[in-house]
Amino acid sequence: xxxxxxxxxxxxxxxxxxxxxxxxxxxxxxxxxxxxxxxxxxxxxxxxxxxxxxxxxxxxxxxxxxxxxxxxxxxxxxxxxxxxxxxxxxxxxxxxxxxxxxxxxxxxxxxxx
Length: 113
What we know:
Number of strands: 0
Largest sheet: none
Helix content: over 70%
Radius of gyration: 18 Å
Distance between the termini: 62 Å
Mean pLDDT: 88
Order of helices and strands: HHHH
């Protein structure tokens, strides 16, 4: 009995669990900014674990999956940052319980949308 398929399956299941938790976080968060943050963090880790599990399950694919993992690792945080900055610049309001808006503080602007 080989151990690599079992370990690969477990790691992939952990990744799928993180993807599920990210989806739940997107549904439960109160505003767009929190949804972007919850979705990005969970889907980044979930996708990385899922692809790592596939790479462990099938070692021949591992070099290609490393390239995909690096691509996701670099692009996912950047894209969420751009989405959040764009949402802020067009005036999407924060939730009422948000205490600090550091982007507004650095720009010195008031948003009344």
